[in-house]
Amino acid sequence: MTDDSHNNPPSRKFTDLVREPHALWRSILLAALSALVAVLCLTSGDLSRSSEDGVKMDMPGIVGGYSGENQEISLSERTILPMDTEFARKLYHTFDGDQINCQIVLSGGEKRSIHRPEICLPGQGWTVKTSEVVPIELENGQTLDVMRLMMSRPIELSSGEKFELKSVFIYWFVGKDKTTARHWRRVLASSWDRVFHNTQHRWAYIVVSGTVLEGLQANGKNEAETFEMLKSFIRDMSPYLLKETVVPGP
Fold this sequence. Notes:
- It contains five helices and nine strands.
- It has two domains: 1-45, no CATH class; 48-241, no CATH class.
- The chain has 250 residues and is α+β, with helices and mostly antiparallel strands.
- A hairpin with a 4-residue loop joins β7 and β8 (179-180).
- The radius of gyration is 21 Å and the shape is globular.
- Strands 1, 2, 3, 4, 5, 6, 7, 8 and 9 form a nine-stranded antiparallel beta sheet that branches.
């Protein structure tokens, strides 16, 4: 047996972090905060406030010019996620053929219900091309930061032709009184409020997505037009999704 450890240095992952100082400091901060939370939880009593959520699970049937229909939650979703996870999902559409998927996943007692959607999307056949945080100006003057993913996957049309199906996928996390588009900020806010404000968030994430129909149907929207459609929908839908106590954040 040969020793090839010199070809696979164990510090590779660390050096990768060093090349990205923001990721390194973020990791150090989260590790330190997690240790602090563990110590304080062991030395303190139960939280005086029960877990609270900031979302409304009853989606309206009509939003703007869209009519919504309830969608079934798949058996695999119910099997993989904890039993106390709550779901709400509707498909909204117009007479012109535009369609928007809107869903909420709300965690229960177990926190593994909530994760970055980027983790499970590849298992559904999607390739995430780009991801970035973008602001959406709401009707009440507040700014909601959301994560926008531009995705694609290969499909075969009924004619047998190969086609690259594209989708615009938008999500953000919602706690008791705040929102964030970033997973690490959700973890940080949850730990901070648990330790210093004696509050435990019952986090949810909201997804609003639409298929890019350019090339698939007459007058189908391209990527930019699909994104604008979703932004407009979120402006109209946000009062029905977020409780009055929630203040949108970065």
